[in-house]
Amino acid sequence: MAVLFEKILTPTDITKRLSIPSRCLADFASSELDQEAYAVELKVKDHETGYAHSFYCTTRKRGYKKPVFSKGWIKFVRQRNLRIGDKVVFLREEDGAGGVVFKIGAKRRMRLMGQLIWGSVSES
Hints:
Blueprint: E1 2-8, H1 11-15, E2 18-19, H2 31-34, E3 39-46, E4 52-58, E5 68-69, H3 73-79, E6 87-94, E7 100-112, E8 115-120
Parallel strand pairs: 3-7
Antiparallel strand pairs: 1-6, 2-5, 3-4, 4-5, 6-7, 7-8
Pfam families: B3
Subcellular location: Nucleus
GO molecular function, one term: DNA binding
């Protein structure tokens, strides 16, 4: 399982959309994103709960192709009760049949025995 990216959530990530690294576009590559279209649906499995989500990865139509997760993202934020400062970890895993499975995890910073650690975020 490979970590594609980790991100500490900002106010925009919590209320509107998740901005993701441009280098991840190659991992989400499809003929749709590579051509003139600017959106592709990604099936994503919650790493902790196993629940399946659909996120739309969109880019701008012109200029810099800033990728974001839009439709479906806020539902995940609410379901997992995420807040500013939490971290998401996005993973890619080969499924054994030549395909790819995307997974997402949510972490919250907490203090345990005087040490700051990242622990799983419970569902609301």
